[in-house]
Design goal:
Blueprint lengths: L17 H4 L5 E7 L5 E7 H7 L4 E4 L27 E14 L5 E9 L11 H13 L3 E15 L12 H5 L26 H13 L4 E6 L5 E6 L2 E2 H21 L2 E4 L15 E7 L26 H13 L4 H4 L5 H4 L12 E3 L6 E4 L10 E4 L8 H18 L28 H9 L4 H6 L1 H20 L3 H7 L4
Helix pairs in contact: 3-10, 5-6, 7-10, 11-13
GO molecular function: ATP binding; glutamine synthetase activity
Organism: Phialemonium atrogriseum
Family: Belongs to the glutamine synthetase family.
């Protein structure tokens, strides 16, 4: 059964349609997205849902007051804190996101957005609200945006207890065991293998088919180079829907994996010495009415500033320039964890500089134009984000930075990365991106940052504060590496 979310009729739902739509149901599942990209939600009765479908309902603001392990932030932030009693915010269901959860008896599901109870404006840190705000800047000029997402992720088998029995609780296992003892789903490096998926074919096809049923369709699905690594390219679509589907893709993978005793891992760098998990994002601008791609130049420019942009429109050049100009100031949105920066190192096919190039996979932004792509598929592939990033924040950042470039008519800040130049960024590459979350967050939060200009102080102060918390916890942590290195020698 195809998901209602993949049916255009789902986007036209009204509150009046809900009684008939949910006639055979007695409950509804609702979920919003927190700053770490984690779905936070609950199951409610159908009666309750019908009563709040248009007005929204109170949802504890603490989801913006604690981290991914429900630990309140070391420095209390404005949205939710002890002084305001961790007050409710308003969660408003988005009826266009309707789908049914196939692994939970087809229970109806809706995403919500979070609003301030006093102003009814989107909560500054709400990921769906932030992306919507950036998109509205384009819509005011008659533009729209399309996007696509690619995710790589490691997978580990269910750990085995000393008794020989297996458990699906990886977290419980890791309380008493070292992470490197988790067995990989498959061994060795074998990208694009046609045979490796057959070792776990029920799981492999279950994810693909469930994503289709749940309306976060996979366009391409294959093994990547790394033990137990898969990569999924999600179906290209309208940018807000794409961000939702990217978040829901992780939800599907984690839910399906549970019944197979598999733990999927979207950390940016789970294994030292092996490639990390990327979360590449593709983006293009279109005419909001006709859907025409606005990044392509046809016919080609006979005298371009660089041959790489001969098929890129002036709008596209300014949009690319905006992303490159602001990229160093928004790195916490693209690389949000301490671990993110273990992926962004030289010689692992992960870009570490402000760089771009036509069909250049070592660059931070890969430009894709004719003749490689059809004119309608002209786009930018931003290769900096990892699989650990919140897709709503990544796409909001790219949209906001790119649009700033259009409004300011910015020129490209550096020439394209030369052929043969690697991700280390010698030669034509621009500045080196942050080497740590602390370095990235200091730039993000500094007075006059591009992030403050694009997103406003309220968002920067909140999200930057959440990253300060993450950094503080890391600074206080005593790692296995430290103990092994110093326990006997110092």
């Amino acid at each position: 059964m195809a998901s209602e979310a993949s049916n255009p009729e789902a986007k036209k739902l009204t509150v009046e349609d809900l009684p008939d739509l949910l006639a055979s149901d007695n409950s509804v599942k609702l979920a919003g997205i927190d700053v770490d990209g984690i779905l936070r939600g609950k199951l409610v009765s159908k009666k309750k849902f019908l009563s709040i479908a248009s007005s929204g309902f109170g949802f504890c603001s603490v989801i913006f007051g604690w981290d991914m392990h429900d630990k309140t932030y070391i420095r209390e932030l404005k949205i939710s804190n002890s002084e305001n009693g961790y007050q409710d915010i308003i969660a408003v269901p988005d009826l266009s996101t309707f789908r049914r959860i196939p692994w939970e008896n087809n229970v109806p599901f809706f995403l919500v957005s979070f609003h301030d109870p006093d102003t009814n404006e989107p909560v500054s840190a709400c990921p769906r609200g932030l992306l919507k705000t950036q998109l509205e800047k384009l819509k005011a000029r008659g533009y729209g945006a399309m996007a696509g997402a690619e995710y790589e992720f490691y997978q580990f088998k269910a750990p085995t207890e000393p008794s020989g029995t297996s458990t699906t609780s990886t977290a419980a296992y890791l309380r008493d065991n070292a992470p490197h003892t988790l067995p990989a789903l498959t061994e060795g490096m074998f990208g694009y293998s046609l045979t490796r998926p057959m070792e776990n074919k029920d799981y492999y096809y279950d994810i693909f088919n469930t994503c289709d049923t749940f309306g976060c369709n996979i366009e391409g699905w294959h093994t990547e180079s790394g033990p137990g690594v898969f990569e999924a390219a999600l179906e290209f679509g309208e940018i807000k829907q794409m961000a939702d589907r990217a978040s829901l893709f992780k939800y599907v993978v984690k839910s399906v994996a549970t019944k197979y005793g598999i733990t999927p891992c979207f950390m940016a760098k789970p294994k030292q010495g092996l490639p990390g998990n990327s979360g590449h994002m593709h983006i293009s601008l279109v005419d909001a009415t006709s859907g025409e791609n606005l990044l392509v130049r046809d016919p080609p420019d006979p005298d371009p500033p660089y041959p790489d942009v001969a098929r890129l429109s002036d709008l596209g050049r300014h949009f690319l320039a905006g992303i490159l100009d602001g990229l160093p100031d928004v790195m916490p949105l693209l690389a949000p964890t301490v671990n993110s920066y273990k992926r962004l190192v030289e010689n692992f096919w992960a870009p570490v500089t402000v760089s771009w190039g036509l069909e250049h996979r070592a660059a931070g932004v890969r430009l894709i134009t004719p003749p490689t792509a059809k004119p309608a598929a002209t786009r930018l592939e931003v290769r900096v984000p990892g699989a650990d990033a919140n897709p709503h924040f990544v796409l909001a950042a790219l949209l906001g930075l790119g649009w700033r470039g259009v409004e300011r008519e910015l020129d490209l800040p550096c020439p394209p990365l030369g052929r043969g130049e690697d991700a280390g960024g010698a030669g034509d590459a621009g500045e080196r991106l942050a080497r740590s979350l602390g370095e990235a967050n200091a730039r993000f939060m500094r007075a006059g940052s591009v992030a403050r200009e694009v997103f406003g102080d309220a968002f920067v102060e909140h999200f930057g504060g959440t990253r300060e918390h993450e950094i503080r916890l890391w600074e206080e942590a005593v790692t296995d590496w430290e103990v092994r290195r110093y326990i006997e020698t110092v």
